[in-house]
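Bug #77: duplicate submission created two jobs. Keeping one. Sequence:
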Amino acid sequence: MHSSGKNLLLINPWIYDFTAFDLWSQPLGLLYIASFLRAHGFVVSYIDCLRSENTSAEVKSKKYGIGNYRREIVETPQIVNDIPRKFARYGISESEFVGKLKKIPAPDAILITSVMTYWYPGPSQIVKIVREIYPDIPIVLGGIYASLLPEHAKNVVKPDYIIEGPGEWQVLRLLEEILNHPVDTDTEFKRLDDYPYPAFDLVPNLRYICIMTSRGCPFNCSFCAQKHIAAKFSQRNPEKVVEEIVYHIKKYKLRDFAFYDDALFINKEQHIKVILRKLIEAKLSIRLHTPNGLFTRDIDEELATLMFNTNFKTIRLSYETSNEDRRKDMNNKISNEGMKIAVNNLVKAGYSASDLEAYVIMGLPEQNLDEILESIIFVNNLGVQVRLASFSPIPKTREFERAVRSGVIPENIDPLLTNKTIFPLKSPDLDYETFRKVRIFSHMLNEAAKKNMAPFAENTIGKSLRRILRDSI
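Kept job's structure:
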């Protein structure tokens, strides 16, 4: 390949929010792009605004490598200053960022990623600072926010260029144009398995590895925008996935691996089951995690046993709601009965039910309190812990469009108002205090689950407690 000799700076920006937590949260797309550009001869520098290279400045991680980010209270944006919580910038200090910026080789172009649409203040602040130091260097913004709200990004963040959707080839062709320097685009990178591994060597204080065995998702859930972000669904060769895991173990000496797939269990007989069998054959001392919700309908007895034998430590099941009609409307491929079967299979394989977690959403449009409570109780009655998730209307999804049509939100809503911490509070029926009590209730039931207790089971005591619960909340 042609060596460009061009210096590129890639930046993972700060998070500005009421809360943030490092839950195996790597900018995997940006790290793929870093290795992709290296393979085409570019010299890549990287600044991760969420992680410090100074170990004494890093917040101590919890087990499995996850943990809190460094937190600095900042002024709350006027539009959300009615929320009774403190707004913060998560990550390194601004002075540390500027210091890093001044130490790297002068870049010929700067690439910034973005994640949640309501985190746009992070990329926006990065662009302001970068322009002060490198006023004439082209700035390219990509990632989820840039893909879903390109016009907002253009007008508010104001990069020179915006990349929508999968970035590797788009970035390469853009750099060829704006830097007036030809690169070899006739490469062997035609399939996912041809791509070089993500550039984890650039990540300061690396504590875990993120793995993608596929890209995209064949489903079209009403609350998900992945079809506007990812390429058409495709899966990697299972043997290549195992080769990558072995490579990272040897290079980084880490044990914790988090699957980033949106649909890890699709085509399970030819894909995930093969991967897990080969991991067992390799006798690797690893811990596996699934921060994204797993489709319970795919967890048969064999898959559950393979998960147990390959040391899945974090299992999060996609459940969302006990309301079957809403679930069908959401195109969610889960059922209450399927949830019970999956949990039963995992317990047979060796897990305690309380080892498992299930996502329950609160704050959905037209969702009442009874539905939220019934969903939480259903999960607890299975002995499973509740992972309560607040709904956020994501642009270009059916749920967002529904919220606009129903008058819940304006079409041009400021993304800050869709923050998952606060959006449920905009419900005309449920207020902040109610949602606070719901969170406390879910925490209480999780503690009960750890003690193998289901206080709201379908018995006389459970029914009495339900009546008391509704009166108290």
